[in-house]
Q: What sequence folds into this?
DNA sequence: TGTCCGACTAAAT
DNA sequence: ATTTAGTCGGACA
């Protein structure tokens, strides 16, 4: 298994750590850049370059779509179903937990649970799922964090704002 | 099994 | 603005 790190535009010290093997992404997590010096990009395989390229495109430009595959099978059957549904939400749009629940014939809470378990943030766009009355959570968190900790809600806000920028350019 | 807890929500206070 | 009741998947005993 290999691992690469892609810097996030959200904050100076944040990056996305992507684990992969066999042309498939197995896991993505948020990380402080400084926390692991060993996570420097040292892998120059074609696939690694593709991942980096697609993520950077997404962060910098408009209509970028991801073609790299994620190993959804790491989740339960239900989680896979939800994650698949997330992949079908277009860039710049959002869905509420409730409407997704209706679509999948389950409950809003259950959808939230599956989102919380998302192993592939950004690529599987759980940030496009919001609550009927507000923001919902992100990466398991629901409120703003203290200094020093990763502020996941800030990241969710940033991603959504970024995708709106994309819409405006169209 | 049974119990409990969520990134929820609509309805009733 | 808050509270309540309904919801269902997953973790754990």
A:
């Amino acid at each position: 298994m290999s691992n690469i790190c892609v810097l996030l535009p959200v904050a100076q010290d944040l990056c996305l750590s992507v684990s992969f093997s066999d042309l498939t992404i197995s896991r993505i997590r948020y990380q402080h850049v400084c926390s692991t010096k060993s996570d420097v990009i040292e892998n120059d395989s074609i696939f690694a370059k593709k991942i980096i390229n697609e993520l950077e495109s997404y962060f910098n430009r408009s209509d970028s779509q991801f073609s790299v595959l994620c190993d959804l099978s790491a989740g339960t059957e239900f989680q896979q179903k939800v994650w698949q549904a997330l992949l079908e939400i277009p860039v710049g749009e959002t869905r509420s937990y409730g409407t997704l629940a209706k679509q999948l014939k389950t409950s809003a809470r259950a959808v939230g649970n599956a989102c919380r378990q998302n192993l592939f943030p950004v690529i599987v766009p759980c940030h496009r799922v919001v609550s009927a009355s507000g923001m919902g959570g992100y990466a398991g968190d629901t409120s703003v964090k203290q200094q020093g900790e990763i502020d996941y809600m800030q990241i969710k806000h940033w991603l959504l704002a970024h995708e709106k920028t994309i819409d405006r350019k169209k």
Observations:
- Chain A has a mean pLDDT of 91.
- Residues 76, 78-79, 101, 106-111, 113-114, 117 of chain A lie near DNA strand C (CB under 10 Å from a C1').
